[in-house]
Amino acid sequence: MRSSNPVFSRRGFSRDNGTAGFNGQQPQAGGPAVGTNPYAAGNPYAEGATNPYATNPYAPQDTQPGAPQQARGNVMTIDDVVSRTAMTLGTVVLTAVLSWLLLPVDPANLGKSYGIAIGAALVALVLSLVQSFKRKPSPALILGYAAFEGVFLGVISAAVSTYIADGVVIQAVLGTMAVFAGVLIAYKMGWIRVNRRFYGFVMAAAMGFMLLMVTNLLFAVFAGGDGLGFRSGGLGILFGVIGIILGACFLALDFKQVEDGVTYGAPREEAWLAAFGLTMTLVWIYLEMLRLLSILQGDD
């Protein structure tokens, strides 16, 4: 399975029942054994219809095919994902606060601060692309992405708070947290089913959304104004809501990735990829929430 992230792709994991949620079907301690994984066959997301982590590198070499293997160590757990995600999001928040405080957005310095923010966003984009094409996660790249993304978010948030509405940033943060909590509850309760059809629909919708936004940006750059109007007025509100809904769908796919990584006994280092994906999705939701609230506040 490829990434739920709207821009980049990464590895994923899945079970064949297509049901999202931590719903009582717990993985074996230490990951599944070779030849005994009940979810490997018919998995709609698995590459080659096999569990990518079924081969146990710690098993004795003379073990017969299909025989139960010893539980291997160094596998990903929920605690690993939580700790890595906390580190990544903590880096985003720290650099965002520092950039808010150290990069003034008053009229005399706004151009310089915007230039630094755009440069940081480009660096974060490059680091994300490099990580997305690497076979193994690199904590340095992921934390570097988080740091530069935080600089961008800090400047943008400060500018919105200064020139549009004071307090809108707090509202966007609370809104992002509410979306995260709501999707997590729905996922855990089994109200969201993540299967091949869901994945295909979300990816198709994300591609269409991104193409429209890029087209709008190009019109804005070359024709001036707000381009096609997808980011202001009634259309801006509509596309802001769509962007948040897409972010919620990406979260469901991220939760599925985490669940399947634990189910299949993914290597512990894969927790960094899960944290990377969750961070990118939460940044997406925050930016869409900030944009939507800015439009609503500006219309008051």
Q: Could you give a short description of this structure?
A:
This protein is mainly α. Helices cover 61% and strands 0% of the residues. Helix 3 (139-163) packs parallel to helix 7 (270-298).
Describe this structure in words.
With 300 residues, the chain is mainly α. Helices cover 61% and strands 0% of the residues. It is built from seven helices and no strands. It has helices at residues 78-102, 110-133, 139-163, 168-188, 196-223, 233-263, 270-298. Helix 1 packs across helix 7. The longest helix is centred in the last third of the chain and has 31 residues, at 233-263.
Please render the helix and strand layout as text.
Blueprint: H1 78-102, H2 110-133, H3 139-163, H4 168-188, H5 196-223, H6 233-263, H7 270-298
From the structure above, extract its key features:
300 residues, mainly alpha, 61% helix, 0% strand, globular, disordered N terminus
Question: How would you describe the shape?
Answer: globular
Order of helices and strands: HHHHHHH
The chain-level mean pLDDT equals 79
How much of the residues is beta strand, in percent? under 5%
Estimate the helix proportion, in percent.
55-70%
Give the structural class: mainly alpha
What's the main sheet like? Answer: none
